[in-house]
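Ligand: erythose-4-phosphate. Inputs:
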Amino acid sequence: MKFFVDTADIAEIRELAAAGVLDGVTTNPSLIAKIGRPIREVIKEICEAIDGPVSAEVTATDFDGMLVEGERLASIAENVAVKVPSTWDGFRACRALSGRGLKVNVTLCFSANQALLAAKAGAAYISPFVGRLDDIGLDGMEVVREIRVIYNNDTSFTTQILASSIRTPLHVKQAALAGADIATVPPGVLRSLANHPLTEKGLASFVADWGRTGQTIL
Ligand code: E4P
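Predicted complex:
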């Protein structure tokens, strides 16, 4: 499973990219608003900082508006993936933009049927929002499992499952077990994947024991 980071914070992206754990980046209008800088400038910087796909989302909700905005976003850099919502206008825009050779990420997906429509519209990525489904008392990861089965059942589908709205390290593990191709993870959760109290305890005792020997390896 690949790792994308779900942020528009360029400093975080550069740091995680340097650690060699990043395969791509996802943003959304809320994440861009949080940064408080012009979207085209931010997306350009992110695209320069990382080789993988960088998702940038349209804000229009109608087909024509999505096409214009999608083209504009895609013109920023070759590695931009245009995000459109899981609506009829979004699926139509996905078909049109994909037909023009652009990579499209269909976002705000909350059901297997929406994922089916996205695949039929030629989406490069489908983004099921796990955490937001959990928030309303449903099992978000079950949607990822269902999509995996549906996509496996039709070998003509090439859409990758991008598990989104990931909130915890457990979500990351479950997404990998469910067969997601990618998980987009907030920076804090991504960093916490390395944490284990027994690793820290074990390392402290190795360092202490080694110190008592007075030896050096070099
Ligand atoms: C995905 O592309 C979205 O940006 C993101 O995962 C949404 O996560 P949230 O539900 O935590 O806002």
